[in-house]
Design brief:
Layout: H1 3-8, E1 26-27, E2 30-33, E3 36-39, E4 44-55, E5 58-68, H2 72-86, H3 92-95, H4 98-113, H5 116-127, H6 131-159, E6 163-165, E7 168-176, E8 179-183, H7 191-202, E9 206-210, H8 223-229, E10 235-237, H9 242-251, E11 257-261, H10 264-273, E12 281-285, E13 290-294, H11 300-312, E14 322-328, H12 332-345, H13 365-378, E15 382-383, E16 391-392, E17 395-396, E18 399-402, H14 409-412, E19 419-425, H15 429-437, E20 440-441, E21 443-447, H16 451-461, E22 467-470, E23 486-487, E24 490-491, H17 496-502, E25 504-512, H18 515-526
Parallel strand pairs: 1-5, 8-9, 8-11, 9-10, 11-12, 13-14, 13-21, 14-19, 18-19, 21-22
Antiparallel strand pairs: 2-3, 4-5, 6-7, 7-25, 12-24, 15-18, 16-17, 20-23
Helix pairs in contact: 2-9, 4-6, 4-8, 5-6, 6-7, 7-17, 11-12
Length: about 550
């Protein structure tokens, strides 16, 4: 069967779906506010899977369930619950000793682990992520929680001492910032939501989190655990149209930290809604148009392997994906031949089949992919892989475009999908100019074998992007490495340890080195009268 015929019949019948990966409809009728799961009887948003099912009435997207479409009233109630839990920094959670906060986080993690099978299945059905990647996202998130616990213990140990300088005694620690609004992306709806939510909580902040538009229901199995593992108001959820529920929350001026991963356009709207933007701390993971530069002496087998994974893992729907490939003119024909062969070898199908290419979750995404391919063709590019760009409802077969130029939309637009633009170059200044002029500055990959040539590229490029990858694809991990970007790609730095610092501020208690002050501080510490002033060592 040809690729075209296979894609025409890509979607399964209900009877073709393995029982262990089949899930019932989930109609979420509650949201978490002030430690309670409150019933919802109002309007709901229907959840549609990118996976379509063949039936008597044709091939139709599977209905997965629904979730609340909250109003401004519920948004304000959730905000009030968080503000009350914070209580100007006097609340139970922000004043709780770190060791006790850790215990709450651990209890939640163990409860979360019990929901692994259901959440993995929901990741597959809601956003089309394949089985292996869905399992990895869950496991990586759980690992991130425990790594964060280890990191905060280490941070606390380094602060559990007094410093004496110029006759001043001081203890310097990190204190929470207040009410945090967490909003994660659809492509990593569990992991990237929790990489901000968990460090924010463990540092003593309280949180409101809004799941992304795609990837909502997978959080439902965790609501009970959130309610039972944290004091009232420490974790709250809100659902619905962003303009309706997030606008009033930001406009209140009561949000102290915005943790958002998504587009720079939306981030700008959110920040401008806050009446005191100078007071608002922002932690933003935004867009990227990461380039791969293939030098004339590149190891082609290695390069193609990394570029395939870098550009098409999870259909290219990653901010760290390689979204523009520059190949030296002397190697471009070889690269295109081998790259297109590798595309043909990819498995395409349904998520539970562990397919490399799966249906796309965003409404209208295949139409957008077709538009940018058509625009590139109109301006001189060709689809160089066989059957590239054919689609079937939510499924889009990868399209490799060459030669691409700056008149094409795909040159500047972050395609966030399985379209791969390729440009040849003669002088290294050409791709360097692209990187310099790009509005993004997240990462870059260089493929080559000459240490001298690569060395000459390192120094200028690290001043344009925040991670330079040599002979490997762009990626976020390991999570202990800093993850950030220049220009419009990020604000703030995330990693296991950096995130703890982002959601806290260095604060100190100081006193002159007098007998009276020494006596006061000694009494407070020995009698454990303060959670902040402490020399306890957390194991």
């Amino acid at each position: 069967m040809s690729i075209k015929e296979t894609i025409a019949n890509i979607f399964p019948k209900a009877t073709d779906i393995p029982k262990e990966y089949s899930i019932p409809e989930i109609h979420q009728k509650e949201y978490l506010c002030d430690g309670k799961l409150l019933d919802w009887s109002g309007a709901v948003q229907e959840v549609i899977s990118p996976v379509c099912i063949k039936g008597e009435k044709g091939t139709l997207p599977k209905k997965m369930g629904s979730y609340p479409l909250c109003s401004e009233k519920e948004a304000r109630a959730v905000l009030d619950a968080a503000v009350k839990a914070w209580d100007f920094g006097k609340g139970l959670w922000p004043t709780l000793p770190l060791e006790k906060r850790i215990k709450h986080i651990e209890d939640f993690a163990f409860r979360m682990k019990e929901q692994r099978t259901l959440i993995v299945n929901l990741l597959m059905w809601e956003i089309g992520k394949n089985l292996k990647a869905s399992e990895k996202e869950f496991d990586r998130t759980l690992e991130y929680i425990f790594d964060t616990i280890d990191a905060v213990k280490e941070l606390d140990r380094s602060s559990s001492r007094f410093t004496v300088v110029d006759g001043i005694i001081a203890q310097i620690r990190r204190a929470p910032l207040g009410v945090v609004l967490c909003m994660g992306p659809f492509n990593y709806p569990l992991n990237e939501t929790f990489t901000t939510l968990i460090p924010a909580l463990i540092m003593g902040n309280v949180a409101i989190f809004k799941p992304p538009k795609y990837g909502v229901l997978l959080h439902q199995p965790l609501l009970q655990a959130f309610a039972e593992c944290f004091p009232p108001g420490v974790v709250n959820t809100i659902y619905g149209d962003g303009a309706t529920v997030i606008g009033p929350i930001m406009g209140s001026g009561k949000i102290d930290v915005l943790a958002f991963i998504g587009s720079s356009k939306v981030a700008d709207i959110l920040k401008h809604q806050h009446p005191a933007p100078h007071r608002l701390r922002s932690v933003l993971g935004l867009g990227a148009k990461n380039a791969g530069i293939v030098l004339k002496d590149a190891d082609m087998a290695l390069t193609v392997k990394e570029c395939i994974s870098g550009s098409l893992s999870y259909n290219g729907q990653r901010c760290t994906a390689l979204k523009m490939l520059y190949v030296h003119r002397s190697r471009v024909d070889e690269f295109l031949t081998e790259y297109c062969k590798a595309v043909e070898k990819l498995k395409y199908g349904m998520p539970w089949e562990n397919a490399d290419i799966t249906p796309l979750p965003e409404a209208g995404k295949t139409g957008y992919m077709a538009e940018i391919v058509a625009d590139a063709k109109k301006n001189g590019a060709k689809v160089v892989n066989g059957d590239g760009g054919i689609s079937n409802q939510t499924f889009f077969y990868p399209a490799v475009l060459y030669p691409v130029n700056k008149t094409m939309r795909v040159y500047d637009e972050e395609q966030f999908g399985p379209v791969i633009p390729v440009i040849s170059f003669e002088q290294i200044g050409e791709p360097l100019k692209y990187v310099v002029e790009s509005q993004f500055g997240q990462q870059l990959s260089i493929f080559g074998t000459d240490p001298d040539e690569i060395a000459q590229l390192v120094d200028p490029l690290v001043n344009q992007v925040c991670r330079l990858n040599i002979n490997c694809q762009c990626q976020r991990g390991p999570d202990v490495f800093p993850f950030t970007g220049r220009k419009d790609s990020a604000e703030g730095t995330l990693s296991v340890s950096d995130a703890l610092r982002v959601f806290a501020i260095r604060t100190l208690v100081a006193a002159k080195e007098t007998a009276l002050n020494k006596s006061i501080l000694t009494n407070i510490v020995r009698e454990r009268k303060s959670g902040f002033l402490s020399t306890d060592f957390i194991f």
